[in-house]
Every structure is written in structure tokens, then in C-alpha cells.
Amino acid sequence: MAKIEIKDLCKDFTVDGLKTVHAVKHASLTVNDGEVVVIIGPSGSGKSTLLRSVNKLEEPTSGSIRIDDVEVTNPKADLRKIREEVGMVFQSFNLFPHLTVLDNITLAPRKVLKMDKAAAEKLAMELLERVGLADKAKNHPTQLSGGQQQRVAIARALAMKPKAMLFDEPTSALDPEMISEVLDVMLDLAKEGMTMLLVTHEMGFAKAAADKIIFMDAGEIIETGTPDEIFTNPKSERTKSFLDHIL
Amino acid sequence: MNEDEKRIENALKAEVVRKKVVSVDSAALNDKGPATITMTDGPLIPKKGEKHVLSSWRITFVGAILLLAALLVFKPEPYLQIFKVCIQGAPVTFQVTICAIIGAVIIGTFTGLGSVSRHRWINMISGIYVELIRGIPLLVQLIFIYYAVGRFFHIEGMVAAVIALSICFGAYMGEIIRAGIQAVPRGQTEAATALGLSRTQVFIHVVLPQTVKVVLPAIGNEFISMLKDSTLVSQLALADILRKGREYISRTFLSLETMLIVALIYLILTLVLSRLVGMLEERLHKNG
What we know:
The structure holds 2 protein chains of 2 kinds. Helices cover 37% and strands 26% of the residues of chain A. By secondary structure, chain A is α/β, with parallel strands linked by helices. In chain A, the strands form 2 sheets. A 6-stranded mixed sheet of chain A has the order 6-7-8-3-9-10, sandwiched between helices. Chain A has a 4-stranded antiparallel sheet with strand order 2-1-4-5. Chain A is globular and about 55 Å long. Chain B folds into 2 domains: 39 residues, no CATH class; 211 residues, MetI-like (MetI-like fold), CATH 1.10.3720.10. Chain B contains 11 helices and no strands. The termini of chain B are close together. Chains A and B meet through helix 2, strand 6, helix 3 and helix 5 of A and helix 8 and helix 9 of B.
């Protein structure tokens, strides 16, 4: 299990070589071992950029990120090792379309963890069972619904036995009737004590599963609190008006 | 067909436009639906939906076959003789085409990889190669490389011709493969990277298989172009179909008759191949 510490993180983008956009401004947060932390906020507020910095899919401009005692932001850090230990689920699933569901899940354990084929497939089948898709093992991702694809994507990330999981708007690309099947899987994970950092617009999930909610706007962390504090008694006006809009 | 595939297809079509239409620059690649896409040799490959009997492909194909058969049956003198002579060149034509397309794919793969490389100078080398090849007429390159290779390495005509054609087509192939690599959505690379795969593993297990799938039809198209452009090797004293025909003309002065047969042979070969490529493409789409 893992603890994620982000300190004073900044990320600037340069647009057209001229304008600099400050996507994330001096953000600091901590996800303790076994905690579920949900980042909410309007689109373009830097939530995803912050999340994607944790496994270095984005290169932060300054600041530091630590996962347990490993400094992710250290240029000498072993990124492969870090990524092995931190699972990630994307908004657009990103399953590999040329591989079957089973092969999607076994690819990383076999190539990265050097697991043998039989062991990897056994593990994959257990995970598929867990997300309720054991019967789809031989299908190709395109033959699955969005909700099913996202559940496979979660199983794929879990196959690496990660210490922590990152979710980048995992239900935003789904039809409404498929959202709950994905959230159920995520809730189970949260109950099992997985350390999770998520960006989501699912306030129901945030209320039910989050230990801590972080509200971001315009690249800044405006407010941090328990679901109770944020939803019933937000301190900041911006948080309040955002929640009024969304709830 | 999902959106990614459509995007990939558009990118590739735009690539073909880039190649065929000199005036279309990289803007065509940004696939904002430029009207120029219709200017490709798209009609060469029959469309998936075209199931009715009177497709242009069928009319042309049946017409060519009937005309050839009629000439051979009803006017065996001189057409049968001409046909027999010309078809002797077919093995050379096929040998050159197949060897050169393999060569071009190999060179093209390195060029394509080079142009997406992060290393500046590798990038530069493949860029210069592509610009150089695209800027010189094929026939000029072919003769130049043929003589250059012949003078410095002393190898026989066939090998020199294959090397020359491979180098010429390798540049175009490189552009196709580059487009194919870039057409793989970024999310694929990100997902694989996030799972802990190394850059090489990401490329081999995730990017390459998807690239192969999208570039195969384009490579098929290049194969057809190569078959046609292989006639240029008749300039290099290689006895391909065209060369056989021209030799026959110089003996008999039956220029129009001979060229008619040569044209029909190429037409039929090209039509058959384009149908095969079309079927391959359809298959790839079905397997989604």
C-alpha cells in the first residue's frame, strides 16, 4: 500500500510558443495509505494534469511528488518501477484494440513482471471474474460496451498488483446506464483498502467512497475537506457555486 | 467502424494525397476533411459498398478480358504471337515488383521510425532522404542509382534495378509508415506506458501491430503503383513485359498492336491486384 504526497506542484504549458498557461499552480495534497481522495472541479481546472503528473504522464514544471519513499519528480527516478506500482484508468478506456480482453490484461504482467503465460492468464481470469466479465475473455474490446471496456481497463490495471490507483474521469465517456457498473467495481476497490486518487464528476461516488475531497479551480486547490464538509458546508464561495451548478 | 479507425483512415488517405498531389502540404494530414481527398487514386480500390454488378471495376475488368480474348482468338495473327512474346516478360516484372516492394517496406520502416524518432539527427536524415527522393523524377533517380550502384558495386542489372526501385519507393513508404505510427491514438501509448512497459515494449506490442493494420492497404496500393512503375526498368535493359514488347516492335514494326497487348496485360494485372487489396482492406475492417 502506498502514500502519495504532492508538494507545491506547478505545471505550465506553452501555447504556440508564446502564451504560457498555468495549468496547475502550487498544488499540495496527500493521499494516505488506503485513503480515497477525489478531486472535483470545473473542466480545465487542472485536475487531470495534476493526476497525470503522479505517474509522470505529464512532466511537472516544478514541485515534488513522492510515492512512499520514492521521489517521482527526481530526474533519476525509475519511472517504469513507479508506473508498475501505480495503476491508471483513463476516461477513454484505452484498451488495446488488436488484443483480446484476456491479452489486454496479461500483456503487462507478462512483459513487465515476466510472469509466465499460464500464471498471467489465471490472474487475468480471476480479475475478470471480479469485475463480472469472465465470459468476455476471448472477445475483442470493440465488441464490448463502454462500461464493460472500462471494467476491463480496471482489471488490466489491477493485474499489475498496484499499490495505488489513479482514475482520470473513469465514467465521463460512458452512457448513463453504464456508469453504475463501473462505480460498483470502484467502490469494491475502495472498500478493500486500495489507495485511490480520482478525478470524477460523480458526486454520488465522492460522497459514498471518498475520505477526502479536493476542489480545484483555475489550476489551484481551493478547498480540501471530508465529503461532509465540502458538500454541506463549503468554506469557499467558488466551491459553493460549483456545487450549486452540479448538484 | 469507430472514430479512431475513421481518423486513421483519413490520415492515411491524406498521406496518399500528399504523395500524389505535390501541392498538398502537411495541412492535409490534419484531417479537417480537406476536399482534396477525392483526388487520390482511391477509385483504384473498389469501395466496400459497391456490390452492384455494374461497378466501374467490373466493367473495366470484363471489358479488358473480353478484348484480349477476342484479339487472341479471332486475330491470332499477329496478336497471339505478340502476347506470347510479351508475357515472357511477366516473370521479370513480378520479380522486380515483389523484391522491390519488400526492399521498400524495409527501407520505409526505418525511414518511418526515423521520422518519428526523438533524436534530432536521425529525424533529419530521414527527412532529407524523403525530400531528396520526392524532388527527383522517378526515372531520373532510377537510372542514376542504377549506374551508381553498377559502377561502385559491380552487381548485375536485376539487383541494381531492385535496389534503385526500393530506394525510390522507400521514401514514400516511409511517409506511409510514419503516418501509420502517428495514427495510433496517443492514449494507446499512454495506457501502455502507465502499465510500466518500456518505450521499446510499447512500440513492439502496442504501436506496431496497430500500425501494420492501418498501413497494409496503403502498402497494397504502393504494390500496384510499383507494378506499374516497374515498367521504368525497361530503360535499364531488363526484359520485363514492356521491354519484350518494345523489342518485338523493333523487329516487326507492329507498334500499335504490340502496345495494345502490353497495355491490356498491365491493366488486367493491376485490376486483379486492386481487387485483392480491396478485399484485404475489407477483411481488416471486419476484424475491427
